[in-house]
Design a protein that fits this description.
- Strands 1-2 form a two-stranded antiparallel ribbon.
- Helix 26 packs antiparallel against helix 27.
- Among the domains are: about 230 residues, no CATH class; about 80 residues, no CATH class.
- By secondary structure, the protein is mostly helical.
- About 65% of the residues lie in helices and about 0% in strands.
């Protein structure tokens, strides 16, 4: 109860009102006019129809009062209590200013009742005295196109007006009511202007607005605005309307939003979030769930696009989140779910079994039968009514059917989230057995490891929490619980514990089942499943049998044939544990069945036969092993079948499998006769499937059994079948075997073989054959023929082998003819070899001439080789020439050697670093002294000066003069640097 003082204060303040009703005039309130206002009134009486006169008078008066009010506020003469209750009308001056301005505005509006400018200014003035001071917000940019409703709501919420020091609704109720009446009069004159309506709506969101105005009157005003304004402007009204409804909450929010969703469903997601987290009322999860379910279904059909960019699956996920949070309010219980599922199943069965309607175009009159969907104007049938999508319906949802139909059947790759959501729903309802069955069903249906892991982890966590809750219940029993209930709880705990342990033990098997469901033709996963059973022979045999029945041979992954082989070994070895008796009969039946399977590759079928034969060998059934391979290698009448023709079965192409024949021939060599092995080898050659290794093995087998000529014929046959470079290996072995066998007894035949081999041999492979040929002539033939073969080799072999071939040729010629006879060979080598190898050959040639005493010829050879040798790259050559000149030369020859060395060095110095250094050295020498260069003091200095001033070398340049510089070498010395190799010789000294 308010005190007496408070009542007195309220009555005192309320007595100041109303201020503007009735409209203040000088007759009623003489204080409105002063002596200074007489001239203004006379001007207005003389020009009542001049809008400019009225507007000027109003603005002048308003500015004058604003100045006085600001001065009064700065003086701070107003009590805080009056400011809180009266706001802008707390002082007599402010109340007088309101009355005076109201008088002027009303008089002007009597002359111009249809002026929007005048009404807007008048209403803003009245609002500033009632609502308080408007807090201006900074806005960037100009006017934009009206956005989508979701964005418009956000923008309007951010740009909402804020007021300070408003008039209290209890004290100033009369003034609030007068302001509302003024707005009503303005809208009576200008009902089609949306700006006036928006300004009017501002009153309803003000925190001090009286409840009588801000509730029912506000709702009716919004409705009148929608009925009055054209539809193109409704969006601006709805923005304020929806925000106002959100502020009121409860049934008002629901009613307004339902009306708007009928024309624009784009804010359905926003509305659903409001229903789940209302401001002042209980949540409505059932309606929100139905709205989200409807959106998810429409988005899946392409009839709805989320303004927030959410996919159909994300919308369905939001629906599942609501179901998990409000399981009791949204979904049916177990009994109702079962009944609903049965009803849906019965309805679907009736629909599938019903007859088609006689007509749907209206030509025939239908008197019976099911309802027929009538097409709309656009040709599409209207959507059928679904009570699950009707937010007005109070019927709860069958969550299990919705998740299966709208989730699992559509989003097969998101089974983990959907199954866990459904199980969580049952957990929240306390239906733990139903939740466990849901987890089991999910694990038994998912196809990816990710979904399986998600479901299994949730299942394990649920089991652990259930066990912990039961254990806690046993430790802290209720007072009403007796001993029998405790025993029942212990027994149930034991059962749950065993189920949990069994679940953890089954994890590997469940994961394997997931992978096999995803790809039942995955051979590796079937082998893993066999390994999981370990020593359980019954389960292993069952798994093998199921795998062979399930896997499609043409779709299987790699090593499908290994399943048959391993299954046969399972019976051969007495089961997985090895404790049972070996069952060769069952193993043979499995392998026999495998030989009739159309594998993707012939090699898989060939390995089946080879493994079968090996099994017979392990059990010493040698004849049976031979018979198995004879069956496998049976040659059909038509041998022109292509091995790579995949349109034919693997059995039809098996006879051309080299793997099969290789095993067969090895078997014949091991336990068969020579004749039978030769017959197998001949069949391989006749089928034209032999490779070089088969040829070599056949010939080696004949050689081991003393069939020399037959082995040589096989080699010759192999050289005819294959070309180089494959035949090179056959020729190499053949010729070495022939020479080793006959030596010189069949020399002409050996020569013919070598000539035949060299005829088609490429230059890159003929060097070993030439060396073998030359060795044959040296050992058993003529030296002259051997030399001709070596000479021929130097002309035929590849460039990278010529240096080595010339080295061998020179060595052989030296041994046979002596040193003088090898000069022509050296000269020919210098013409043929590349520059880099020419330098090395020149050093050897010069050493030969020094041995023969030909000093001048050796010096000429050194001079010729110098053009290929950079002093920084080949210091060995220059050191050897330097020692040669010291030992055998004179001052002139030594000077010539130094001149050539400098010329060669300058020839090779073409790098940018050398040129830059040379330029810098020239600038320094020019800047240091401008005197002419003194004459050389000795002949050696003159030679050096002449060499440095020469324009080019004194010999014919090589074709390649720039050699790569080795890493770590410095650039060549400049002309000012001293030469480390230079030898200073005095004029008086004799060499």
């Amino acid at each position: 109860m308010p005190s007496v003082a408070e009542k007195t204060t309220l009555e005192t303040l309320s007595s100041c009102f109303p201020l503007t009703f009735p409209v203040p005039t000088p007759t009623i309130h003489p204080a409105l006019l002063t002596v200074d206002d007489i001239r203004r009134e006379e001007d207005l009486l003389r020009n009542p129809s001049s809008f400019r006169a009225w507007w000027t008078a109003i603005q002048t008066t308003r500015e004058a009062f604003d100045t006085e009010l600001k001065a009064e506020w700065r003086a701070n003469t107003i009590s805080d209590e009056s400011t809180q209750l009266l706001g802008p009308l707390a002082t007599p001056l402010s109340r007088r200013s309101l009355q005076c301005l109201t008088y002027l505005y009303e008089a002007a509006l009597a002359q111009f009742p249809g002026s929007f400018k005048l009404w807007k200014s008048y209403l803003q003035m009245r609002m500033s005295y009632v609502l308080g001071r408007l807090v201006q917000k900074k806005k960037a940019g100009g006017r934009k196109k009206f956005p989508e409703m979701k964005d418009a709501l956000e923008e309007e919420r951010e740009d909402a007006e804020e007021w300070e020091y408003g008039l209290n609704a209890v004290v100033g109720w009369d003034e609030w009511r007068a302001l509302v009446a003024t707005y009503e009069r303005a809208l009576m004159w200008l009902p089609k202007l949306p700006r006036l309506w928006l300004m009017y709506f501002t009153l309803f969101s003000h925190p001090m607005c009286p409840p009588v105005v801000s509730h029912t009157h506000a709702r009716r005003t919004f409705d009148r605005a929608l009925r009055t304004l054209p539809p193109s402007l409704h969006s601006r009204i709805w923005v304020r309307y929806l925000l106002w409804a959100e502020g009121k909450g409860g049934a008002t929010t629901v009613s307004v939003y339902r009306r708007y969703l009928a024309i624009d469903p784009s804010v359905t997601e926003h509305y659903a979030s409001i229903l789940l987290s209302p401001a002042d009322a209980a949540p409505r999860p059932l309606e929100a769930a139905k709205l989200l379910l409807s959106l998810a279904r429409k988005a899946a059909r392409g009839e709805y696009v989320s303004p927030e960019g959410r996919s159909p699956y994300q919308l369905l996920g939001d629906f599942i989140d609501v179901v998990e949070r409000f399981s009791d309010e949204v979904g049916l219980d177990v009994h109702e779910t079962v009944q609903s599922n049965e009803a849906y199943a019965k309805a679907e069965a009736q629909q599938n079994g019903s007859l088609e309607p006689t007509s749907v175009d209206g030509r025939l009159v239908r008197t019976a039968g099911p309802a027929v969907t009538v097409a709309a104007a656009d040709g599409k049938p209207p959507p059928a009514y679904d009570e699950d999508e009707d937010p007005l319906s109070k019927r709860k949802l069958n969550i299990e059917r919705i998740v299966r139909k709208d989730g699992l059947e559509v989003y097969k790759d998101q089974g983990g989230r959907l199954w866990t959501g459904l199980a969580t729903y049952w957990i929240k309802r306390g239906e733990f057995d139903r939740a466990s069955n849901t987890f089991e069903a999910g694990i038994a249906s998912v196809l990816t490891v990710r979904d399986f892991t998600q479901i299994f982890d949730a299942y394990a966590k649920f089991s652990e929490s259930l066990l912990s809750a039961m254990m806690e219940n046993l430790q802290n029993p209720d007072e009403d619980e007796d001993e029998e209930d405790a025993k029942d709880t212990e027994q149930e705990l034991d059962v749950k514990m065993k189920e949990f342990e069994a679940l953890m033990e089954r994890r590997q098997f469940l994961l394997n089942e997931v992978l096999l469901r995803r790809n039942p033709n995955d051979v590796q996963e079937w082998q893993k499943r066999v390994a999981l059973w370990d020593k359980n022979d019954e389960k292993v045999a069952e798994t093998y049998t199921k795998a062979l029945e399930t896997v499609h041979p043409r779709k299987a992954t790699a090593n499908f044939h290994r399943l048959y082989i391993d299954f046969a070994k399972f019976y051969e070895e007495g089961g997985a544990s090895g404790l049972a008796e070996p069952d060769l009969g069952s193993a043979r039946k499995i392998l026999e069945k495998a030989t009739k399977v159309n594998f993707k590759t012939v090699e898989d079928l060939a390995e089946i036969w080879c493994e079968w034969s090996e099994m017979e060998l392990r059990h010493e059934n040698y004849d049976e092993a031979i018979r198995v391979m004879q069956r496998a290698a049976a040659i059909p009448k038509n041998t022109k079948i292509s091995y790579h023709d995949h349109s034919l079965s693997a059995q039809a192409r098996l006879f051309k499998s080299l793997k099969l024949w290789s095993f067969y021939v090895d078997l014949e060599e091991s336990i068969g006769t020579v004749e039978s092995a030769k017959a197998v080898y001949d069949k391989i050659l006749d089928l034209k499937i032999a490779n070089a290794q088969i040829i070599i093995n056949y010939a080696a087998f004949l050689e081991e059994n003393q069939y020399w000529e037959d082995s040589f014929r096989i080699y010759e046959r192999g050289t005819e079948l294959f070309t180089f470079p494959i035949s090179f290996e056959i020729w190499n072995i053949y010729l070495s075997k022939f020479v080793k066998r006959y030596g010189g007894s069949k020399l002409e035949r050996a020569r013919d073989l070598f000539e035949q081999a060299l005829e088609k041999c490429p230059p890159t492979s003929c060097k070993p054959l030439f060396l073998m040929y030359g060795k044959l002539e040296e050992d058993h033939g003529l030296a002259k023929r051997a030399m001709s073969i070596y000479e021929r080799a130097t002309q035929t072999v590849a460039d990278q082998d010529k240096f080595e071939m010339f080295t061998v040729y020179i060595a052989k010629a030296t041994a046979n003819y002596g040193l003088p006879a090898i000069r022509p060979i050296y000269e020919r080598a210098l013409e043929v070899l590349p520059d880099k190898q020419t330098a090395e050959m020149c050093l050897r040639f010069a050493a030969l001439e020094r041995k023969l005493g030909e000093i001048d010829r050796a010096r000429a050879i050194y001079a010729h080789a110098s053009q290929f040798c950079d002093p920084r790259v080949n210091p060995k050559f220059w050191a050897e020439w330097n020692s040669f000149e010291i030992e055998t030369g004179s001052e002139d020859t030594f000077r010539e050697m130094l001149r050539i060395k400098r010329s060669v060095q300058a020839q090779f110095n073409t790098e940018a670093s050398y040129l830059a250094a040379q330029t810098l050295s020239t600038k320094r020498s020019n800047g240091a002294s401008t005197e002419p260069t003194p004459p050389p003091s000795d002949p050696m200095a003159a030679a050096e000066q002449q060499a440095s001033g020469a324009k080019g070398p004194a010999f014919v340049a090589a074709t390649i003069t720039t050699l790569p510089r080795p890493e770590g070498t410095e650039a060549g010395p400049t002309q000012q640097e001293t030469n480390a190799d230079e030898i200073h010789i005095s004029d008086e000294e004799d060499l």
